[in-house]
Amino acid sequence: MQRRTLLSTAAATLAGTFITLPARADSGWPTGKTITYLVPFPAGGTTDVLGRLIAQKLGPVLGTNVIVDNKGGAGGSVGSEVASRAAPDGYLLLGGTISSHAINVSLYPRIGYDPIKSFAPVTLIGTNPVVLVVSKDSPYKTLKDVLAASKAKPGGLSSASAGTGTSQHLALELMAYKSGVKFTHIPYKGSGPAIQDAIGGQVDMMFDTTVVAGPHIQSGKLRAIAVTSAKRLASMPDVPTIAESGVPGLADFEVVSWQAIFVPAGTPAPIVDRLHAEIRKILAQPEVQEKLKGFGMEPADMTTAQISAFQKAEVEKWAQVIKAANIKPE
Question: How far is residue 243 CA from its own chain's centroid?
Fold first, then answer.
């Protein structure tokens, strides 16, 4: 009788141990294992710049290393597909964008992941418009100059982008669709190499985010023609909006890019909540806020549920734009 009692007690204790193991595993995260912040674009672009800024501050907070890994290609789709197949254990973060998580699903026949179902949102870092730029030696000084020159040139002016389906590309296609002016799109594998060719004059122009183009505009290497926001930016008060150009069809023109952080679907809620809380604190730091504003970004503060709703609306919006403008991957 005593032996049966002891066995029953041991079994109950063992069962209790198994029941509490998952909770201990979640609460023990991170264990010291390195966390990878996957950037689905080459180094030098907006997602990379922001990823490195956040990774540098997130590592000490979590007590482990956070390294940035760049896997560019197909407007962020290549790296995002890799991330979608990663273990949902909190050791991989993905720098998602308007391209990888809103546009590409309607642009490409197959991208290998579902931008909504394959991931769980962690944080919306911020939003920012893109700016149309030309080399400092370019003869074009206004949007009307650009449109007139593109009309006169067979095939139109060449315009670089970080890749087919990126916000830079969609801004170009939307302007072409609304103005009736043709351009030649030159996709690159990221903003870094594209912006260098815009600076060097190898391409006539480029739409790029204020994060990437801003420093080159300030240094005088690039000339800003117009921004895609509804209102002028506080960081570029002298640069007009495209809507201000007076060009027929462009009065309501607006394109706003965004940056977010995702983890693979199935990542335990306690880990997602911890990441959301810690990254939110980092983004709220005065020096980080100043950097974001200096980049021309509008900081965002959404719950994970709000991010999900926002992302779904963006997927629907860009599906309509892509269909209306008949945009095809190159």
Answer: 24
Q: Are strands 205-209 and 158-161 parallel, antiparallel or unpaired?
A: parallel
Amino acid letter at 21? Answer: L
Distance CA 204, CA 70 (A): 28
What pTM was estimated for this model as a whole? 0.74
Strands 205-209 and 92-97: unpaired
**Strand-pair category, 92-97 with 35-39:** parallel
Q: Which helix (DSSP H) or strand (DSSP E) does residue 167 occupy?
A: helix 167-179
In the chain, the largest separation of any two C-alpha atoms, in whole Å, equals 99
Neighbours of 60 (CB within 10 A): 10
Token duo for residue 31: 């264990």
Q: What angle do CA 70, 329, 313 make, to 5 degrees?
A: 75
For residue 136, give the DSSP letter. Answer: T
For 55-91, what is each residue's pLDDT tens digit?
A: 999 999 999 999 999 999 888 999 999 999 999 999 9
- C-alpha angle 163-167-107 in degrees, rounded to nearest 5: 70
CA distance 228 to 314: 17
C-alpha to C-alpha distance for 177 and 171, rounded to whole angstroms: 10
Instruction: Report which residue type is found at 298.
Output: E
Q: Rounded distance, CA 87 to CA 211, Å?
A: 31
